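User: Predict the structure for this protein chain, please.
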Amino acid sequence: MSKIRVGLFLSFIFFTASSLRADEGDPIYNVPQIKGINVDGEASDWKDQGFRIEVLSPMDGRIGPSEKFDASVRLAWNNFGLMVWVAVADSTPSSNDTVELGDSVELFVGEAGVPASGTVRYIIAPGGKEARYRIADLRAQYLHRNKPQLKAVSRKTGAGYVVEALIPLKKENRLTFQIVINDVNGQKLSRYAWYPRDDTDVQSRS
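Assistant: Here is the predicted structure, written as structure tokens:
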């Protein structure tokens, strides 16, 4: 994308989708509204609904075997905000006292048309009914209209772990979104992203 100044985050239509006219060249994705979903770490209420992200790319360009790492994502919205479901297949899920230094899910959410400093970064660790997370508010001072919140649940599975989250948001016509999943094996950190660049929170043009 070339005109949304939140890096290479892919934009999606949120809430009043029909009222938005997209700028030429901006990738826009229509994320559906879903009712009746509880943030409980269970996928049954999602059924086959939601906007699906089936492939995340390794940010170093090295593709490994899917039995060691794989992930799928679903996005939706309700009257409270943005909902995210992440299922990670990881043969060695682990955690760290510093959330982002262990296996973790990072969500970057911003307002379309503002600088990269207008994003909020949510980092969620795997496992535990009450998910461990950290929120980094990267918005410029003038954008600090309200403190970012997060409701998140995570649990380990036989294949790896799942994360389910609700990011409370006021109604916006368009938001920007990027997801990065961190996979730590020993001293090695591998990162997988929807858009495979490690500077999507600072670059303004593709």
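Residues 1-24, 199-206 have pLDDT under 50 and may be disordered.
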